[in-house]
Amino acid sequence: MWRRRQGFLRPVVCGVEELRCRRREREAALRKARREQQLVSKRLLREDGPEETGGERVAAVLGEAEVHQFLRLAQRGTEEKEREQALVSLRRGLQHPETQQTFIRLEGSMRTLVGLLTSNQALLQLEAARCLHELSHSEQSTVAEACLPATSYLLTYLSGHSSDFIELCLYTLGNLIVESEAVRRQLLPQGIVPALAACIQSPHVAVLEALGYALSQLLQAKEAPEKIIPSILGSSLLQHILQLLQPGPKLNPGVAVEFAWCLHYIICSQVNNSLIISHGALSTLGLLLLDLAGAVQKIEDAGLELLACPVLRCLSNLLTEAAVEDMGGQLQLRDERVVAALFILLQFFLQKQPSLLPEGLWLLNNLTANSPSFCTSLLSLDLIEPLLQLLPVSNMVSLMVLTVLCNVAEKGSAYCQRLWPGPLLPSLLKMLACSDTEVVAQSLELLQLLFLYQPEAAQAFLQQSGLQALERHQEEAQLQDRAHALRQTALHG
């Protein structure tokens, strides 16, 4: 690193620790940004009839008189079929935001619907629940809050016997949870966490997927770290989540995706990641990573990236915890197998889903940052060249590839001897022509480490027109000190 003194530039010694510290500060900022990324969404369950799927029969917007009429028929009709059909007509009308607003403005409408939800006639209960589900899908928080009188009953029905009804209640609760803090404030004392914990033992895959969705919505609430996650960690949910992520014949991809995101949100809260590590999360996730790598080699396109993304994020974030070292967390991951699996996934992402490359590289960065053994695996498996082939993908990918290479180089002379000679220097020369300042800065940092531990590389750099590549950065404020320092190092050793 360089700084200006008395009107001229002079070198200042920049040690490995300072380089490492700079990178860790950048990574901490990136981790914070990644933790704040959320996947808030709503889901809608509808029958497969043409009127539900946008076919020929499109439900009409209902006026106040029609809403009142359907509610009255559903409540007081002389035949059960007539009552059920009235609720079906109301439900179809509630697909429209205008009808939803009409419904919540109509006095006594929600009280009537809750009465039908709690009736002793199963078909009326189901249609009433479907009406609530349509309301829960509204983007207006006022509609969600109008459903508050029904939440305690929805929770109660989670302990019922009908898996279809439980699934519907879970998706409805998940939609309501994400829309309104008032709903969450009511659900917590009503016992939503114990109710969800009881559901996780269901043998029905559809119920487990719905549960994972509802739980993930709850975990994304802004108050989750203080008011929700401690209760979840104090329940049996964590152990069951990890069991559902265990690779093997019982692993269901849809269920695993939902609960991998749940685990991701719990880890990002940083409430008690030591507890998560102590339950063997690193081992479970590492084995799941190996399983995914094996699967992508056998299956052409099975949507595996949906599971790979949260698994990679969980592993990456756990590896930043101090408890990993204290509990021997690195030993839970087998070095060469994990690195090999990760590169299989990187190749898969490159071909199928390039947007996920940074996720895999972020994990590789965290694996190699403080672990000479993972750096050794990277070298012994001859993975430097495949890593360099990712440089042209994007500036973000370039930056992360260069950061991983810096992790390797900073481990010392023995590691730099494996980096050079080889394709590294030509690749870095190309990176110095990049327009992205961060990419160039990281390239200069890697060259600085390489010259420090492998002086012969500096001569090769000079022979390959390295000075000309540096000259374009001599006048750039953010890079001129580093570029000048590297030039001096290359010329004078």
Considering the chains and any ligands shown, give keywords for the structure.
single chain, Armadillo, ARM-like, disordered N terminus, Leucine-rich Repeat Variant, two-stranded antiparallel ribbon, mainly alpha, 30 helices
Describe the protein's architecture and organization:
Keywords: Membrane, Transmembrane. This is Transmembrane and coiled-coil domain-containing protein 6. The chain is mainly α and 493 residues long. Among the domains are: 23-44 and 60-221, Alpha Horseshoe (Leucine-rich Repeat Variant), CATH 1.25.10.10; 232-324 and 331-353. Helices cover 69% and strands 2% of the residues. The chain contains 30 helices and two strands. The chain has helices at residues 16-35, 64-76, 80-93, 97-105, 109-117, 122-136, 141-146, 148-156, 163-179, 181-190, 192-199, 205-219, 224-233, 237-244, 253-269, 273-278, 281-298, 305-318, 323-326, 335-352, 357-369, 372-380, 384-388, 395-409, 413-419, 424-431, 437-453, 456-463, 466-471, 480-492, and strands at residues 2-5, 8-11. A two-stranded antiparallel sheet has the order 1-2. Strand 1 and strand 2 (8-11) form a beta hairpin. The protein is elongated, with a radius of gyration of 29 Å. The two termini are 15 Å apart.
